């Protein structure tokens, strides 16, 4: 699932027992740091300030160094804005893509970002650094066969027909055999491609135009693989996806926050025009951010889930120590930590962002540290941030960058290092928490041996008030370490979960292991010994946020899954299909490959495809209702059930389908009885009984999908007190001692 550079999101997927990290290392780092050192009206989050480091340079995105634009050509940067009112216009030089309420998605010429921050009616600019970008036996998991089995009450085959599925991703091949109908025509109904070269996307809706389009990025196959899991329709070798009958809308981009959301809007617009429900998959993740649901992205996404079901990958950082926290006291007035390149142990180089959040609005003092790798000796470098006097940025850098800094204060990088650490801070007005981020790009120039590097950098935070809690997050290229400093904070892999999932509405999907052995096209064995069939994937991210929110919501098959590979990618990287492809088919002179990958990037489209089946059964449900159905029907794992990586449990396609059907066509029955379950209502008391089993879980869910009561009685009878519930229809969901679901609908007068 992912690599990094400020604000870009890049997929990273796993093949085998190691991450296939597409880690970005800038060739030439920057020409000009400050673009909004003293912004006028708008607040600007630290990582949005870092966008200026890409001006005139190579922009890292989608797994390779790509020149964003030719010399002299305008680069259009995506940005999220909060404006004064719902009708506040943007200045003429900014291009509005979409807006919901006072949050606007826009593109703006890179050199005018500072001007945008000073424009009338613009209150906030925001972007975040970091990013992240199989089917065979996976179809046997999550009760999918039971959900697909014929049902006399619902005789139509469940394949996603009548539903629009879409994704925001990179590396898509719309003319792979997996996305063609039986006549060879593209099943993709709409294709939207965003680039840095234009303020507006290229939109293709004509079948001939889509047929002539190759790919957005020949160095990636992420979207092609993800889309195959979600809705691939080539049925030979049992390779079809979960919802092969659904309409497909593909959106591709350099994976910036604003462009992911804009892609969602394009999917929703198409679905609304067709009068069909929409499911969106985002197998992209952001490691940094406040993880409290307050970002403009989180708030915009919550609004989107009123119009579509959205599944988002939890991230693949379950083994990376990318989070740490500490609370100060009178005896320990500061918290500090060191950072290294991931997955290596060497501090030889670093490229990524460290994001630091306080639990209060009080500014904290920041000091950079260097620790000698051999002796453990620590040197301190003060950071001169002074927000009260308009100094929100500071740079530690090599001499060759210092002439371009303008009024931004700086200090000299140690002689043995080349590069920079760009520090920016603000009091975030969205959550009233003080935030400082460090954008790092440097290398030890004295050696090429990773294990002879001199020192590693760290950061110390000293709040003004004792009892302040500080949280440190890092992008995927960085892991935290104490090294030889035992007084440093303890690093952990907890809470490395995707910040995109921190708000309400989307379904956060972790990964379980579904297959660990394949045979390649050449007959060689492809084995993944770290995978334990039926267990939670070792890499799957998780965490309980400061808000109490437990993530992931559910887990689904993500390791390993076989799905389609972009033909353009295979042409550019011919060794890849030779080594890892497991299936190939010829079509019109082209070879179409399928191969295994693993990651929450794969489990998320599996879950999205399942929700498309639920929407086929009941198209009236919105995204928040679908999420609550997924949570209400999730089942406990058989293996390692107390592992927090499971989140709320395993997706149950059959139980969720049954609940979706129950929510369709609700009547006003006061009590109901099926063969095994009896439910009666007396006033505001609901009494439920199972005839031949114990009630292990009882949940009461409102018609808008909210879970109102959850009980675990462990005997045949249960009573729930619904005093205070408004009059209306409610769904009763029960799991018996054999794990079988039962449901009924009741009315409270």
Please outline what is shown here.
With 749 residues, this protein is α+β, with helices and mostly antiparallel strands. Helix content is 15%, strand content 34%.
What does the average pLDDT come to? 86
Q: Note the beta-strand portion.
A: 25-35%
Query: How many individual helices?
Result: 12
Q: State the oligomer.
A: single chain
Structural class of the helix and strand makeup?
Answer: alpha+beta
Q: What is the count of β-strands?
A: 46
In spatial order, strands of the major sheet run 14-13-15-12-16-17-30-35
Please give the largest β-sheet.
Answer: 8 strands, mixed
What is the terminal-to-terminal distance? 50 Å
What is the radius of gyration computed over CA atoms, rounded to a whole number of angstroms?
26 Å
Label the overall shape.
globular
Question: Could you explain how this protein is built, in words?
Answer:
The protein has an eight-stranded mixed β-sheet, sandwiched between helices. A seven-stranded mixed β-sheet has the order 18-28-20-26-25-23-24. A five-stranded mixed β-sheet has the order 5-11-8-10-9. By secondary structure, the protein is of the alpha+beta class. Helix 6 runs parallel beside helix 7. It has twelve helices and 46 strands.
């Amino acid at each position: 699932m992912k690599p990094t550079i400020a604000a870009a999101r890049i997929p990273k997927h796993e093949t085998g027992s190691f991450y296939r990290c597409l880690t970005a290392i800038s060739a030439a780092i920057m020409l000009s740091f400050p673009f909004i050192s003293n912004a006028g009206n708008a607040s600007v989050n630290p990582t949005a300030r870092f966008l200026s480091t890409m001006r005139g340079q190579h922009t890292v995105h989608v797994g390779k160094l790509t020149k964003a634009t030719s010399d002299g050509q305008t680069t259009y940067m995506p940005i999220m804005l909060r404006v004064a009112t719902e009708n506040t216009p943007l200045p003429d030089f900014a291009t509005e893509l979409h807006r919901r309420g006072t949050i606007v998605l826009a593109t703006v010429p890179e050199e005018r970002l500072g001007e945008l921050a000073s424009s009338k009616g613009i209150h906030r600019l925001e972007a975040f650094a970091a990013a992240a970008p199989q089917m065979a036996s996976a179809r046997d998991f999550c009760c999918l066969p039971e959900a697909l089995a014929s049902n006399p009450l619902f005789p139509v085959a469940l394949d996603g027909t009548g539903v629009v599925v879409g994704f925001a991703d990179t590396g898509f091949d719309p003319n792979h055999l997996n996305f063609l109908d039986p006549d060879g025509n593209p099943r993709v109904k709409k294709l939207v491609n965003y680039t840095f070269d234009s303020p507006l996307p290229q939109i293709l809706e004509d079948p001939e135009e889509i047929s002539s389009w190759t790919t957005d990025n020949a160095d990636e196959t992420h979207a092609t693989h993800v889309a195959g899991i979600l809705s691939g329709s080539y049925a030979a070798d049992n390779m079809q996806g979960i919802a092969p009958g659904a309409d497909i809308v593909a959106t591709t981009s350099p994976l910036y926050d604003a462009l992911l959301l804009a892609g969602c809007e394009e999917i929703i617009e198409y679905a609304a025009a067709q009068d069909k429900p929409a499911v969106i998959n985002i197998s992209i993740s952001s490691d940094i951010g406040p993880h409290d649901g307050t970002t403009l992205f989180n708030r915009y996404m919550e609004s989107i889930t009123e119009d579509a079901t959205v599944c988002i990958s939890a991230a693949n950082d379950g083994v990376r120590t990318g989070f740490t926290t500490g609370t100060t006291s009178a005896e320990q007035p500061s918290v500090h930590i060191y950072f290294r390149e991931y997955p290596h142990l060497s501090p030889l180089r670093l490229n990524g962002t460290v994001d630091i959040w306080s639990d209060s609005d009080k500014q904290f003092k920041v000091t950079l540290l260097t620790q000698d790798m051999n002796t453990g000796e620590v040197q301190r470098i003060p950071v001169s941030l002074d927000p009260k006097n308009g100094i929100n940025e500071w740079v530690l850098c090599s001499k060759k960058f210092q002439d371009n800094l303008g009024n931004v204060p700086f200090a000299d990088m140690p002689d043995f290092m080349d590069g920079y650490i760009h520090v920016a801070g603000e009091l975030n007005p969205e959550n009233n928490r003080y935030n400082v981020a460090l954008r790092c790009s440097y290398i030890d120039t004295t050696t090429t041996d990773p294990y002879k590097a001199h020192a590693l950098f760290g950061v110390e935070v000293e709040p003004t008030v004792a009892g302040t809690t500080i949280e440190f997050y890092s992008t995927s290229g960085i892991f935290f370490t104490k090294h030889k400093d035992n007084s440093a904070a303890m690093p952990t892999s907890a809470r490395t979960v995707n910040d995109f999932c921190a708000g309400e509405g989307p379904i956060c999907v972790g990964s379980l292991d579904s297959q660990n052995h394949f045979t390649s096209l050449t007959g060689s064995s492809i084995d993944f010994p770290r995978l334990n069939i039926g267990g939670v994937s070792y890499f799957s991210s998780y965490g309980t946020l400061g808000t109490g929110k437990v993530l992931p919501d559910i887990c689904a098959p993500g390791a390993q899954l076989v799905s389609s590979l972009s033909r353009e990618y295979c042409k550019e990287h011919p060794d890849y299909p030779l080594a890892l492809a497991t299936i190939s088919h010829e079509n019109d002179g082209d070879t179409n490959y399928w191969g295994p990958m693993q990651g929450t990037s794969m489990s998320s489209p599996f879950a999205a495809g399942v929700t498309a089946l639920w929407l086929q059964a009941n198209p009236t449900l919105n995204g928040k209702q679908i999420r609550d159905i997924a949570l209400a029907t999730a089942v406990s794992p058989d293996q390692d059930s107390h592992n927090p990586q499971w989140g709320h449990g395993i997706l149950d396609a059959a139980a969720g389908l049954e609940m979706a059907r129950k929510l369709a066509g609700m009547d006003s029955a006061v009590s109901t009885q099926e063969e095994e379950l009896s439910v009666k209502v007396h006033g505001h008391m609901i009494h439920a009984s199972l005839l031949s089993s114990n009630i292990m879980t009882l949940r009461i869910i409102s018609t808008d999908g909210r879970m109102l009561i959850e009980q675990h009685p462990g005997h045949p009878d249960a009573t729930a007190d619904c005093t205070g519930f408004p009059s209306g229809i409610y769904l009763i969901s029960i799991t018996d001692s054999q794990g079988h679901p039962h449901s009924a609908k009741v009315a409270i007068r």
